[in-house]
Write a structure and sequence with these properties.
- The protein is mainly beta.
- The longest helix has 43 residues, at 2-44.
- The protein starts with a helix and ends with a helix.
- Mean pLDDT is 77; it is low at 1-5, 32-47, 270-285, 511-515 and 619-635.
Amino acid sequence: MGYERNSEATTFHLAKLLFVVGILTAVAVAGFAYTNSGQAIVSANVVVHCPFTVALTSSSSVYIVPTNIMLTYTVNSLYNCVTQSASGPLTLSNSVTNTVIYTNTVTMTGITNTAASNTFTQTSNKLEVGSDTAFITLTSSTDSNSASVSFTVLSAANVLLQSFAASPNPATPGSVITFTSNEINDGALATTNSVANLEVVAPGGSLYLANSPIADLSPGQSQIISLSVSGVSSQTGTYTAYENVSYFTDGSNAVSSNAMTQYSVQTPSPSPSHGGGPSPNQTTPIVSTIQNTLLITTLPIYVSQLDGEQSIQYLGVKNTANYSIWANFSVPQQGFGKLLLSSKSIYLMPNSTGVLQYVISVSKNATPATYLSTLNATLSAANHRSINQSIYSKVNIVKPDDTPYLLSSIILLNGSNSAEMEFTIANPTNKTYYNLQLSAQLPAIAIACECGVSQTGGVHNITNYGASYLLNWKIQALQPKTSLLYISTINKTIQPQLLTTPRVSLTAPTVPQASGLFRILYINVLPVYVNSTGHIQIGAIYTGTNTTNVTFSMVPPPGYSVQNPLRAIKVSPNQVLMVNYTTGILSQQGTTYFTFDTTGYFGRQNYPVPVLVSPIPTTSIIVVGGPSPALATTLDAFAGVGLILLIILLVYLMSKMRRSSQSARYDAGRAEKLKDIGKRIRERKGKAR
């Protein structure tokens, strides 16, 4: 029994020993294996990759010369590792010509998983106007990465005066001088709030200043500026005139360079009358009454019309005498064509009025000029002598070309105290014209006050320049084969004869080109994978001169869709636009082409938008390094302590087993003695009972 129990105890202790030793051995082996593995990977990090990302951003998508281009490049490591240094070129180039404009080497040190950034600044006047790209590549001892960003450089509006002249030259004292110049905008933005500024220095040194609003210019557009000014020919001699154009561009005021011209004023020598021939510059007094008997109440004192056409006017008369009269009219040969009256005589009672139809018929292919028309009147009455006198007006012949043209007329009303000015703007072409400007300059001496002048139609204003009044109309659009009528009424005239040669002008810019008014700055497509939606961002700029509506549309290929594909936006001059689109599910791997469509008054444009659909990336676990140094040190410490404890425990258990084994060894003599002692004890207990 004792032997069996000792044997069982020995077996139990041995099992415990083996279990503990197995556990400690496993821990030790695992610790050693993991520690040794960590040490191997840490030592390998010296030569394995430590990849990093590079990002390049621009502070703006559009830069206007002159300004500073600001580029920011940012790097950080992808994993928990450090790249000591990475360097490489930062390059700026034009996207169209591929011309390298700037290059320099940049360096980043201590690249970690915390993003580090640097900013690079370059003046825009060193870049080419148009689409430009910045590109950066950084290379370390084991890895390399690149990034790029695109932006647009535009030149501000820049107005140049290409010619400047005064007419007539030489002029006569008191003449109205017309200053004509040609301006062009060779910048990439439109002008706004444009004004022509005139300065005239007289022979004695006196100064005359005038300014006039003019039509704004789109990029690359030109126009003729015509300013007719009175009061700048009052004395003989040589006059010097200067002109410039002030305007706004990119939110600031700008002024073109000065243009200079000279003209002379001379006393004319006597010349014969023009009769019925052309008389572009002659001012002939208008007879308001004929010998205080016949009052002219309505008279077309100035009419412009096309060659080969007729216009119906009216001649209104009133008998101011206290007796009845006959008014008889005769029409001599006219240099431009014919004058036709509905009747050659009219009978007027005292203080009565009458009206005759007054038809102006211009000969076909008449020479464009201003002609003096003549109407002879003879008054007769019983017991009164006959009175003969002529009535004059002017006829201006206009021969249209392939641009919009202007027809104007001035009609005296209400007994010659008021006048009505009519302006007809016609577009004979198949094109639409934009931003037209109609101007009429009237001598201030002929008008009682600015308050007596009214305008109708379109966007208009009147400005007093001291010696003259300038009436302006701005016409946003003139459609093909259409005409517009504008009327101005002068309620009180002082010297109506000065209105016989109005200074009118029509500024009709050429049809703008779409490429100069609307351009795409960039098209960004975010990465997209199969069976997911795509995101498209489009940047554009509008450089027209008037606020307008633009329609954007993102057209998907067959089988695909776009959320909210159609947009209508009102845009202002020089406005930068950004439009975002989200596509439907893209299920086909590869490149899918969408179409970005723009429609406005400048026309219609289409831009292809390629969307690359990539396969869904597979997920994998990549071991790139061992534990961190702190963790490796901790594991080393645990492994060392475990070994020491294992040795101590083995020694202790072996000594205990030795003692246990010795106490359990079998001794026959001792066993017999123990049996005899037991037997005696039992016998004594029996006797005691």
